[in-house]
Amino acid sequence: MAHEEALRLVFPLLNGRDLASCMQVCKHWRDVAGDDYFWKCLCAKRWPSIMRRHIPPPESYREFFQMFAKRSHLNRNLCPRFSFDDLEFFVDVWVDERVVFSEVFPGSLIRDGIENLPPNVRRLHEYYLDRPGYKMILPVKPNFSIRTESAISVSVIAGRRDINKLVPIFTRRKVDILGDAPNFLHLAPIHLDTLDIYVQPDDPIFLNYAPTINPNTLKIYAPHVFVSLLFMPKQLLDNPDASLRYSNIDEIRVFGVALDFGRAVKNEDDLLSLLRILDWDLEVDVLTVVALFYCDELKGLPFRPVVQGIIGSTELPPSNFSVLACGVFHPFRACDCNTDLASCMQVCKHWRDVAGDDYFWKCLCAKRWPSIMRRHIPPPESYREFFQMFAKRSHLNQNLCPRFSFDDLEFFVDVWVDEIVIFSEVFPGSLIRDGIENLPPNVRRLHEYYLDRPGYKMILPVKPKSSIRKESAISVSVIAGRRDINKLVLIFARRKVDILGDAPNFLHLAPIHLDTLDIYVQPDDPIFLNYAPTINPNTLKIYAPHVFVSLLFMPKQLLDNPDASLRYSNIDEIHVFGVALDFGRAVKNEDDLLSLLRILDWDLEVLMLPSFLFPSRFGVSAN
Amino acid sequence: MSSTKIFLKSSDDKTFEIDETAARASETLKNIIDGGCLDGVIPLPNVSSNILPKVIEYCKKHGGDNGSSKKIANGGVDKDKEILPDYDEEEDKREKVRVDELKKWEEEYMDFDQQVLYDLMLAANYLHIKGLLDLTVEKAASMIRGRTPDQIRENFNINSDFTPEEEEEMILIEDEWDDEWAFD
């Protein structure tokens, strides 16, 4: 049919969106445009290097294209995948080592938490609650009293009901009711005109201690979460009109617990984004509410009197059960008792058998995570293993450590010049590690200034070398693949790069022969810094331009005559020997890089099997 | 320069005359000429008499060369640069005028309805006239690019034969290939 022949001539000129529109014109057009051949061509055009590894081919290139094209912006990667309804929060409060509060909050309750506070408490903490930044409010019922001289510690653990996993948000830590950094308990100013004002929030100290995400290392430090008790001084409860100095408060009644992520979290979406990148890998069966046990069970311990006798004593009776009991109950050593009990297991066989009794470990678990124990049904097979696993990960700053190595990675790099693919290659992660070693010495010397700048750079050696004329339009795409889970993520979505290095989509050009050239020093330019926000601490979103792609090249003139003196403006042709990826100040070393890669959204499941080249180079000419 | 005349016969048995130089714009005709089959009339069973004059008009305009204005603009300037180390500004200007003039001609030439477009495209394909094929295919593509299905139907005079249910479940493709240059 002639009509169809004409369409077949036209459709290869269209992009995916237009081709999809064509499929909606009429049945005839749908059948013609639906031919997977056109979609295969589109895939090959956009992701040539992936097509080379993609075996077996997808059942439908159109579906592959749709899935992949949808996710072409990095800044969509951290959008939340779960809602508040999937969350629950385990909150425990200890006063002088006694559990005074232990509760599981559904995420939906926290959403409306602020509505559930008594009006006078809300009014009292107005200043704090109205500060910018999203606060999780956990209403405390029944409320409890704390004397201000008491030692207070708090632990908050988040649970996800959808995947039955847990992550510690605020590891059990002693908090100072006076609000000393770094582990302070926020105290909102009370009756501003009558009180000594203790304004923590805008204090420079506060700001120092609220680094949220450290852009230099990409690690999340524990103190970035602030726990505040929403309380009423007892005096004000007894007499609402009392005028009260802060220093005169001796007893407070707690009506709520507020979690505050400082400037990092501005709204619910930010919070979900933040929670999402945490390490949800503590698999625990979190099923229906069953108050399993906690303090009551501890009361039944046979050697409780012994324990009581030695509390506070640092001298431990040597070969006696009580040493174990001491490990369990020593009030201020909650963080170390795991190692104590574990050490006891290594003393001799007899001690091992005794200390290995899961009962002790159950007590430890109940002591450290009472609210989790209340939800933990069925109980784990071994409380010791549960404890070990959970205690190991009790610091937030361990959460982002990598789970895969460079050997698990591969990188798909495509370079277009004037819309023609001139380079399309798959690099194994291990090659990138030593990428810099693989550069010819003269190229390294030329780009020394750039390569020696602080910050880790991924160097992908380009062989065979590609030649590019300066006036050409160059675009680059970099996609990372994980061989361990067979998934892909877009690192640098195909984007036009300007060989002159104009922000935001610039191609870095290292200064060449500093003394003879017009110097174009981008790196320390204020513009550069503006365009390299890495992770924006205000929104926690990763913006696409935080990855910088540089071509490691030699001007043709210098290749022909190594001693040539050359002005930048006189370069007309370059030979490319490598591609460098640079994450700005965010990534200082390989671990940082792995951490960064880890939090990306590895959800493009694509079958990638070992070294196999797609039959035709770009998958088009076969037809 | 005098040139041999060649006669072409359309599918509806009408005969047209064309210079050999012009006919060489068509790869198909060129092969026939070079193959020595010039006796009499060349039958073109796939090209009708309302399209053939249009094809001949294009061939006359383009004589020996084989490209659209776009091709000449890109290819021509590049070639000059490579061959001539001393860049001739006058020549560049003349080149520019030629390209502009050709573009204007193409614009007028391409002013016809979409049925002619189809036939011309197929004729160009059949006769292997690359410049004309590029021109027509590009025009058809430009009538599709960035448009909604409704707009495409209007451009090509097509009635949708989908049931309302089928329209509902149509796929939507989020393709940012063209937009992703934009910095957000």
Order of helices and strands of chain B: EEHHEHHHHHHH
The quaternary state of the protein chains shown equals: heterodimer
Classify the beta-strand content of chain A into a percent band. 15-25%
Query: For the CA atoms, what is the radius of gyration of chain B?
Result: 21 Å
Chain pair with largest interface: A-B, 38 and 38 residues
Distance between the termini of chain B: 60 Å
Q: How many individual helices of chain A?
A: 26
What is the strand tally of chain B? 3
Structure description:
The complex is a heterodimer of chains A (623) and B (184). Chain A has 623 residues and is an alpha+beta fold. Chain A has 4 domains: 2-71, Monooxygenase, CATH 1.20.1280.50; 84-281, no CATH class; 295-392, no CATH class; 406-600, no CATH class. Chain A has 26 helices and 17 strands. In chain A, the strands form 4 sheets. Chain A has a 5-stranded antiparallel sheet with strand order 2-1-4-5-8. In chain A, strands 10-9-12-13-17 form a 5-stranded antiparallel sheet. Chain A has a 4-stranded mixed sheet with strand order 11-16-15-14. In chain A, a hairpin with a 4-residue loop joins strand 12 and strand 13 (487-497). Chain A starts with a helix and ends in an 18-residue tail after the last strand. Chain B has 184 residues and is mainly alpha-helical. Chain B has a 3-stranded mixed sheet. The model of chain B is unreliable at 66-85 and 173-184 (pLDDT under 50). At the A-B interface, helix 1, helix 2, helix 6 and strand 13 of A face helix 6, helix 7 and helix 8 of B.
